[in-house]
Amino acid sequence: MPELPEVEVLVRHLRRRLPGKTIRSVSVRRPRVIRPTSAAQLQRALRGATFTRITRRGKYLVFELARAGDSARRTLVGHLGMTGRMYLLPRAAPLPKHAAVVLDLGRRRFVYEDARYFGRFTLETALMATLGPEPLERSFSVSTFARTLRRFRQPIKVKLLDQSVVAGVGNIYASEALFRARLAPQRPANRLARAEIQRLHRAIQKVLSEAIRFGSTIPLNHGGRKSDGLFYFGKADDASDYYVERLRVYDREGQPCPRCGTPIRRIVQAARGTFYCPKCQARP
DNA sequence: CACCATGTTCCTTG
DNA sequence: CCAAGGAACATGGT
CB of A1 under 7 A from strand B? Predict the structure, then answer.
């Protein structure tokens, strides 16, 4: 699920529920996800601490905590990897098979589960040091974007996945943004014209903000699932009813382009699937 | 069994 | 030092 929009919706969801809650104990079931923090360090830092502010940076969730009689403020950093989820559960509810870290909050538990354990739940804030600008903020200007893209001759699709170029765009929204901007994914990043970069800049903002709006308006408990604020789990998911017409090209190989009817094509770039319309997104 | 998957990082090569 | 490609990570779905 996890690109910027999904993380943003999750952050907004948790922001209404976590602040004010105090951590009674910490259970680390998969130490790999807290690296390089140790289980003892995490315990020491979090036990007795209360959630205050929750923010997002790229695809990272940033939890700030405070503790009475302790001036040190803690920052907990989360990342969902490919398959991570975070949600609150009643204390009595059974834990999911792949619960990686569980925080005891009293009546409820805050669960980070991750079937593949690619994600993170750690005190290591340096993970975010190399991130590029936030695409929905002013720091992401057309000129910044253009200056960055000049440095690379790799295909533009590949550079959109580079979190140091712009933070938060993943494989789905990279294809979606290029479709909206009508740019071929194979175009070398350093050969885009200024007008094309401008289109892409706008397309990225549009695609991400539309997805946030979409994720904010669909019901969260669809199909009897846990309320975790997430809204992408593949086309076979219960949420697919809400999904029609949302993504224009991603995972639509062979289906007609919504703009011109030409079959959508799938290619592989940097070992990831890319979807595009060969007519609307023709190379110059 | 084979292949694919929403992400990041590390290693190697040039 | 940088760019670029590929493997690795771990598991589940088709």
Answer: yes
